[in-house]
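Final report, Chapter 2: Outcomes

The project's central promise was a pipeline that accepts a single protein chain and returns its three-dimensional structure in a standardized token representation, suitable for archiving and comparison. That pipeline is now operational. To close this chapter, we reproduce one record exactly as it appears in the project archive, with the input sequence first and the structure output second.
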Amino acid sequence: DNENPELGDSQQSNPQNTPTTRRARTNVTQSKDAAAATESTNEEQQEATPDEELLTTQARFQEDVDDKVKSIQQQGQNLEQQILDAERETDQLHDELKRLDDVWAEKVAALTEATAQTVANRSESTDAPDKSDTDKDQRAGRSRQNVISLAARIRALQRKSVES
């Protein structure tokens, strides 16, 4: 009754050799192979995990180092620019000081010259008085006297005109 006409005699006598059983065995075998492959992959991953962690750590460290190097380079460039600016300003101040020294030297020379001429003029005038200076003083005294006498005459004329 249970015989399958499609199966041969060897297959009918052995119930482990039915197509369902064979499929089940194939599935079990495939599952075992997949489990074994998964286990070997897990073992490889577990073995590779420290290496991968090391590589990841090294990559992070390298990125941190690169960032720090870039930061230091940027700071260095900023400092170099500040140094160039300071050198340029120093040159400008040096030029301005040189110009001011030249102007100061000219003014001191002019003052020294003027002082020497003034001293020479005073020494000449005190050594020998000029006749022209004496004449000027005498004329000034006479003109003061003339003004006073002229004012007295005007007052006298005004009194006479009021009385008349």
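Archive annotation: The chain has a mean pLDDT of 76.
This record, like all others produced under the grant, will remain available to the consortium after the project formally closes.
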